[in-house]
Amino acid sequence: MAESDPKTMAAAGDESPQIPASVRAFLDRPKRMFIGGEWVEAVSGRSFDVFDPATGEVIAEVPAADATDIDRAVKAARHALEAGEWAKLVPADRERLLWRLSGLIEANAEELAAIESLDNGKTVGMARMVDVAAAIDYLRYMSGWATKIEGATLTPSFKGIPGARHVAWTLREPVGVVGQIVPWNFPLLMAVWKIAPALAAGCTSVLKPAEETPLSALRLAELVEEAGFPAGTVNVVTGFGETAGAAIVEHPGVDKIAFTGSTEVGKIIGRAAMETMKRISLELGGKSPVLVLEDADLDQAAARAAGAIFFNHGQVCTAGSRVLVADAVHDDFVERLAKAAEAIRLGPGWRDDAEMGPLVSEAQRKRVLGYVESAREEGARVCCGGVAPEGAGYFVRPTVIGDARPGMRVVEEEIFGPVVAVQRFSDEEEMIRLANATPYGLAASIWSNDLRRVHRLIPRIKAGTVWVNAHNLVDPALPFGGYKQSGLGREHGREAIHLYTELKTVWMVV
Ligand code: ADP
User: Fold this and answer.
1) Which of 321, 288, 311, 305 is nearest to 486 (CA)?
2) 242 lines ligand 1 (CB under 6 A)
3) Which of 283, 383, 384, 414 is catalytic?
4) CA–CA separation, 451 vs 448, rounded Å?
5) What are the phi and psi torsion angles at 441 (to 5°)?
6) What is the torsional sign of CA 65, 181, 122, 143?
7) What pLDDT does 12 receive?
8) Phi and psi angles of residue 26, each rounded to the nearest 5 degrees, phi first
9) Could you give all domains of the chain from N- to C-terminal order, each with its CATH number?
10) Cα(119) to centroid of ligand 1, in Å?
């Protein structure tokens, strides 16, 4: 399965990657983990390779942590939490440190965008506009929370002690040492989504980036050090999920696990975390429906539905991977969506004319193409894409699958790639039934200007976020998380502070 189309493939392989000097210097520095304020190798001396997904070439080698290294990182985080400089800081100090870190990310934005592009495959433009810009905003938003963590005063009704007066209040205390495990789709931003609220709340962190994309988290650790966070506050460990990740989840010195990744791994983590009753927050997979009602402007809805799935190559937990379209307009809609997909230009992330880069890994490409194959076998119509272009890199052409039906794997399972399945519905009841016919419940979008109908539909959709005439919008202030098997807990806003604090009740008899 290979195709080569000069119109839709920015010429890859005819030039070597354009890597800025600062990124080259970063890549040339030996990669170490950041533990207890020191740069260290894995105790075992083991390491693993990191690849450029646009070429398949090795671009770095990073330490492969195991349980011994995790123990070291957890102890450093515990020390910082209880006895180090971090423990002595007041909320405004934490606010200032987070703000300073945001400024350092801003000052190094171009370098970070280029690192992210090289490691993950996304375009530099996208990394700059989305990943890096959102990381800066997120840190700034969360820095403000450090000084705004509140409890409540309460009046008990207890009458059992004659003559006594009762005073009670609640305190929000840092949950403690948090293990934070993040995926490869937005490596820097996911790391920031994790560390920012944890640090605002006064916790300390052991952060593990995904093995596919560890580089921006290591650069972030350098900036954490430069910002002046006390030693052990943030520890960045690189390693594989089954070894380093599992060791974080199992470590008795970790109070909470915050995880973003697949539902499958989320369940493994959830079960293991219960052994020591760790607090957990899980932001997991999705199969988010895009609901196109009859009154929607078809051209606009098709263009936006293309954005909903092809943004970040479909490697987004909220990706609009199922489109439900009214029967009457299904064929017209699919045609428009396929046209939008075909116009997307692929190329390595550093090329200015590339609109979509490669998928993150060869394994991911195989997986995605396997889903397209299953759709063909199950009788769906592959309207466009479904192929890997010739040449190096893990590219997959944006793919639209029409006539998709319940029971097909492309309808039921999260693909995490640029593949959208379009289904028909004949009336509103069928649309709602199909929209909710999934174990996931992360997000959904409704495309209509019929306000009464939209209001009627919103409460019937089982999803953590419902967008109307938009998809994939995220804001630091708006709670984010999933219903059903899309996760546990809500990140962002006040909810994120709740995730990183324990509530203590104080009851005083006076
Ligand atoms: P994806 O399927 O998108 O690659 P995963 O859920 O496998 O996502 O991985 C997300 C993160 O979880 C990565 O940092 C990975 O190393 C980590 N991970 C994978 N398996 C485990 C595990 N058994 N325990 C802890 N962390 C894990």
Assistant:
1) 288
2) yes
3) 283
4) 8
5) -160, 50
6) negative
7) 47
8) -65, -45
9) 18-284+487-506 (3.40.605.10), 289-479 (3.40.309.10)
10) 17
215-227 and 91-107 are packed helices; what angle lies between their axes, rounded to 10 degrees?
130
Question: Is the separation of the CB atoms in 28 and 223 below 8 Å?
Answer: no
The vertex-334 CA angle with 409 and 480, nearest 5°, equals 60
182 and 210 in contact (C-beta within 8 Å)? yes
pLDDT at 52: 97
Give tens-digit pLDDT for 174-203: 999 999 999 999 999 999 999 999 999 999
Whether the per-residue pLDDT at 7 is higher than 60: the answer is no
Measured in angstroms, how far is the CA atom of residue 261 from the centroid of ligand 1? 6
Which distant-in-sequence residues (6+ apart) come within 8 Å of 80 by Cβ?
36, 86, 87, 204, 230, 231, 232, 233
DSSP class of residue 208?
E
Is 427 touching ligand 1 by the criterion CB < 6 Å? no
Q: Which residues contact 188 (CB under 8 A, 6 or more apart)?
A: 112, 116, 131, 132, 135, 216, 217, 220
Q: How far apart are CA 202 and CA 205, in angstroms?
A: 10
Q: Kindly state the tokens that stand for 188.
A: 């820097």
Do the strands 443-447 and 33-35 form a parallel or antiparallel pair, or are they unpaired? unpaired
Considering only residues 285 and 9, tell me which one the structure prediction assigns the higher pLDDT.
285
Task: Please count the CA atoms within 13 angstroms of the CA of 195 that sit on its side-chain side.
Answer: 34
Neighbours of 470 (CB within 10 A): 12
Q: Is the pTM of this model over 0.90?
A: yes
